[in-house]
Amino acid sequence: MSDIAVTRSDHVGMIVIQRPPHNFFDVDLIRDIADALEQFDQDAQVRSVVLAADGKAFCAGAKFAGSSSGAPASAEGRRLYEQALRIFDCRKPIVAAIQGPAIGGGLGVALAADFRVACPEARFSVNFTRLGIHPGFGLSVTLPELIGRNRAELLLYTSRRIDGEEAFAIGLVNELVEQANVRERAVALAEEIAACGPLGVLASRETLRSGLAGRVRAAVSREQAEQERLMATQDFAEGVKSTAERRPASFIGR
Known about the structure:
Shape: globular
CATH superfamily: 2-enoyl-CoA Hydratase, Chain A, domain 1
Distance between the termini: 41 Å
Largest sheet: 6 strands, mixed
Helix content: 40-55%
Strand content: 5-15%
Oligomer: single chain
CATH topology: 2-enoyl-CoA Hydratase, Chain A, domain 1
Number of helices: 10
């Protein structure tokens, strides 16, 4: 687990992503996060978990070796989503400490958590349609469940980027604090959860999130298939090129 740090303080587990400045993920990083969460599930002393990141961004999305677009090849994409689904199967509450951008699949990682503490400087975007492809990482389920279908549709269809204040206003973020205090406040929230009866918390979470992992699993199957189909289009090539060149895309619908 060379790119994450895993620690425990009293009843709170901590996972810190350490690929600064942007903390791009790949299959290995998502697997390591899932491994750490499963280890915390087996540790009776851990009652809640904080997921944080070092660097400028919380997670700026995916970046795969040999891919100029940051998108995985088909086989790599399947492996990625197999590991991502393990995160949704974990049992203990997760608080994400979002000190900077959470973009694309990085927002998917943030929304796999139960709660999010962020700052005005944080940025959020489901930027897949700007690349000409379908959203992934279960965002077609987690985003509308969190902020409502129509708000989610707006963010998904436009690839709009919003700041921490707007994210807080629409319910994407639970708490908004100064950037320097994000991780401290996330730990305080995790400690507040951990101070409650652990059996009651686990049972309540299981009830409230009943079926979520299954819904995400079904959505990911479609997301992956659509991503693979659309990555073969001219629009995807144009989306990647225009993003790299920092200009508006000229999509043609093919």
